[in-house]
Amino acid sequence: MMSIEKEIIDYIFEQHSPRKYYLFGSRPTITLDTELTEAGIDILWEDAEDTLDYYFKHWKVKLEGFDITRYFDPAFLGSPEPDPPLKPLYVWMLVESAKAGRWLYD
Predict the structure, then answer these.
(1) Strand partners, 90
(2) What is the C-alpha to C-alpha distance for residues 21 and 27, in angstroms, rounded to an integer?
(3) What is the mean pLDDT of each run of 10 residues along the chain (106 residues)?
(4) What is the C-alpha separation between 75 and 96, in angstroms, rounded?
(5) What are phi and psi of 35, to 5 degrees?
(6) What is the reported pTM?
(7) DSSP letter string over 38-69?
(8) What is the phi/psi pair of residue 90, to 5°?
(9) Is 28 exposed, middle or buried (0-12, 13-18, 19+ CB in 10 A)?
């Protein structure tokens, strides 16, 4: 049986670890300390919505307290900078929340 940690890391790797040169080259490693947001692998808003929707449903994590706009900016043309600034979202946050069955962070 695969651990939640490995399942989530594998899922993020498959969805968001592109090859360096599109069809070939190495792929970035995904670890618990990988940041999904701007300073890390920089997942786009649309992709983050799909990934997190799958995450909450597949690992049965209650959404209570989760707000995607704390971590990702839709960045529509002409939209102002987020206020307050965006927070980082790490793989370990997904893993710990999946283990608890509810979102643990604000």
Answers:
(1) 35
(2) 9
(3) 90 80 73 89 88 97 92 71 81 97 94
(4) 28
(5) -90, 130
(6) 0.85
(7) TTTT---HHHHHHHHHHHHHHTT-B-TT--GG
(8) -110, 155
(9) middle
What amino acid occupies position 74?
A: P
- Residue that has been written with the tokens 């999904």 in this structure: 36
- Which token pair is 21? 């040169």
- Residue linked to tokens 């002409």: 78
Q: What is the dihedral of CA 82, 70, 33, 97, to 10 degrees?
A: 180
CB of 47 closer than 8 Å to CB of 67: no
* Amino acid (one-letter) located at 87: K
Which residues lie below 8 Å from residue 73, measured CB to CB, with a gap of 6+?
Answer: 45, 79, 81, 82, 86
